[in-house]
Design brief:
The structure holds 2 protein chains of 2 kinds. By secondary structure, chain A is an all-alpha fold. Chain A has 2 domains: 45 residues; 205 residues, Orthogonal Bundle (MetI-like fold). Chain A has 11 helices and no strands. Chain A is flat. By secondary structure, chain B is an alpha/beta fold. Chain B has a domain of 150 residues: P-loop containing nucleotide triphosphate hydrolases (Rossmann fold), CATH 3.40.50. Chain B is built from 9 helices and 10 strands. In chain B, the strands form 2 sheets. Chain B has a 6-stranded mixed β-sheet, sandwiched between helices. A 4-stranded antiparallel β-sheet of chain B has the order 2-1-4-5, with helices on one face. In chain B, helix 2 packs parallel to helix 4, helix 3 packs across helix 4 and helix 6 crosses helix 8. Chain B is globular and about 50 Å long. The model of chain B has no long low-confidence stretch (mean pLDDT 88). Classes of the chains: A mainly alpha, B alpha/beta. Chains A and B meet through helix 8 and helix 9 of A and strand 6 and helix 2 of B.
């Protein structure tokens, strides 16, 4: 081994020695400031976008809370944000207790309401979407049903409650009936509109290819109409959640709507305000969830 | 010996809200196998209507249309159509759009692997192998039109019907696709009927140019055989006096004899 001509092994030996400090081969003279590196720039940009996107909503919420605090401070009856927050923390510390039918945790109340909405809305979807397809496909049916739909659609949901109580005899199915009848229309109408708006071109393709009815449905009708159906579903679930509070106030039982009424009788205003937030947030989540679903199935 | 496609005294009357509208009347045309026919005329002259009659998307109210001595009744895959606006299904990839047609035509007799191979071949023919898994929304207008052509060709139709297939494209893309179409038609020996409003396109591509009179009650005004030798090259043709002669004859028909009444006034 000669010092002038070291082999690779020699170099490895030397370089792995304890007194060698490894220096990257192309180390720049000046250390690049972090915000000029790729990851640094991305972090900086990300932070800027985050702030740009976050500032307006945060500002809006802050203003809302401030206004609320102002109103609460000026009167005696409405609890302020801090008081409500404290009540909410206490309420949510034990959401699933069960002291008989008239005193259950907030979690049970929400779940019961969601269950009713699920049943009523599910039944409405099961009836409304196929009905919408048929109305869209057959002009005769469309003209036959459109006067009935036009009359029934604008009826206030609660006007249906007495009919439900009369026919079904019980409060629970009656409230589900109200959800059903008030949330079915957006699904019927949107599905029908979707079917009617399928471009003639797609149907011409189906005709030239001589596709079977099944293939026409699975490859053309269904995917073409799906975005419309999902719009209807989204509107419907909004209506269903809107209606459940009112329906439960009237029919009673465990549920967020009856809970509001119960707390009003107890004069626990903080809980009513919490209920308003819960209704709003759950509704938002339902709608956002369906938006995600709709985005998954949109092809444009 | 009968011609391959036989159109005998065909007429089309539409029932509209304003009463009956006669779009076509007394159309007689015989198309030989392997022939490339261009239908040209002013808009509203019923050239698309005539194409739809051959496609079977419309039923003639008068006369008879025959393909290989059989009456044309309703649409069918042996008369594939390339639509003006490509008409791809936007929720299927380019591959699946073509495969849908292949599956329908050959699904009864061929294995799945063969069907896939056919689809791949069709896409390769229009130079879109790389875009097979893209959705129509992700590719350009010219590429979409090529997928539409691939879909039609993959069906191995007896007659390929094209309704202004390049009308919506820019001039460069159009020229490129015309060249590709010429190559494909030469290779497959397809019988083609193409509707166009572009005189250069008609002279470049067609064996015969069928010129339509103005509607309503349009009919065939004149048939011009294009006896330019193939393969044709657009650059060479630009200096060919015979090409210009043919072009002028189409222009003369369209703009002096069939000048639209409104414009003539």
């Amino acid at each position: 081994m000669s010092a002038a001509n070291p082999t690779h092994e020699d170099l490895d030996d030397i370089l792995s020695g304890p007194d060698i400090v490894k220096v990257p081969a192309a180390a720049p003279r000046r250390r690049t400031p972090y915000f000029e590196t790729e990851s640094g720039r991305r972090l900086a940009e990300g932070t800027v976008t985050l702030f740009r996107n976050a500032i307006p909503p945060v500002l809006g919420i802050a203003m809302f809370v401030a206004l609320w605090a102002l109103v609460a401070a000026s009167g005696k009856s409405i609890p302020g944000p801090a008081e409500t927050w404290a009540a909410a923390v206490e309420l949510f510390s034990d959401p699933f207790y069960d002291n008989g039918p008239n005193d259950q945790g907030i979690g049970w109340n929400i779940l019961h309401s969601l269950y009713r909405v699920g049943l009523g809305f599910g039944a409405a979807a099961a009836v409304g979407i196929p009905l919408g397809f048929m109305i869209g496909r057959f002009d005769f049916l469309s003209r036959m049903l459109s006067p009935i739909i036009s009359i029934l659609r604008p009826v206030s949901p609660l006007a249906w409650l007495p009919i439900g109580l009369l026919v079904l005899q019980k409060a629970e199915p009656a409230s589900i009936w109200v959800i059903f009848i008030s949330s079915i229309w957006p699904m019927v109408l949107n599905t029908a509109a979707g079917v009617q708006r399928i471009p003639q071109d797609y149907m011409n393709v189906a005709r030239v290819l001589n596709l079977s009815e099944l293939k026409v449905f699975t490859r053309i009708l269904f995917p073409a109409v799906l975005p419309y159906v999902l719009t209807g579903v989204r509107l419907s679930i909004g209506v269903a959640w809107l209606v459940i509070v009112a329906a439960e106030m009237l029919t009673g039982g465990v549920g967020i709507g009856f809970w509001v009424w119960d707390e009003w009788n107890n004069l626990n205003v903080a809980h009513i305000i919490i209920a308003i937030f819960i209704v709003g947030i759950v509704g938002l989540l339902l709608e956002q969830g369906l938006m995600l679903l709709a985005k998954r199935f949109s092809y444009e | 010996m009968q011609s391959y496609v036989q159109i005998e005294n065909a007429g089309m009357v539409f029932n509209t809200k304003k009463g009956k509208f006669t779009a076509l009347t007394g159309v007689n045309l015989a198309i030989e196998q392997g022939e490339f026919i261009a239908l040209i005329g002013h808009s509203g002259c019923g050239k698309s209507t005539l194409l739809n009659l051959v496609a079977g998307l419309l039923d003639a109210t008068d006369g008879v249309l025959l393909l290989a001595n059989k009456e044309i009744k309703g649409p069918g895959p042996e008369r594939a159509v390339v639509f003006q606006n490509h008409s791809l299904l936007p929720w299927l990839t380019a591959f699946d759009n073509v495969h849908l047609a292949v599956e329908k035509v050959f699904g009864g007799s061929e294995s799945k692997a063969q069907l896939k191979a056919r689809t791949a071949t069709a896409l390769e023919m229009v130079g879109l192998t790389h875009a097979a898994n893209k959705l129509p929304g992700e590719i350009s207008g010219g590429m979409k039109q090529r997928v539409g052509i691939a879909r039609a060709l993959a069906m191995e139709p007896k007659v390929l019907l094209m309704d202004e297939p390049f009308g919506a494209l820019d001039a460069l893309t159009r020229a490129h696709l015309q060249d590709e179409l010429m190559k494909i038609v030469a290779a497959t020996q397809s019988t083609v009927v193409m509707v166009t409003h572009d005189v250069d396109e008609a002279v470049l591509l067609a064996d015969r140019i069928v010129m339509m009179t103005n509607g309503p009650a349009a009919t065939i005004g004149e048939v011009l055989p294009v006896d330019l030798p193939r393969p044709r090259d657009r650059l060479a043709l630009a200096h060919d006096p015979h090409y210009h002669d043919l072009r002028s004859r189409v222009l003369e028909f369209l703009y002096s004899r069939q000048m639209r009444p409104k414009e003539a006034a």
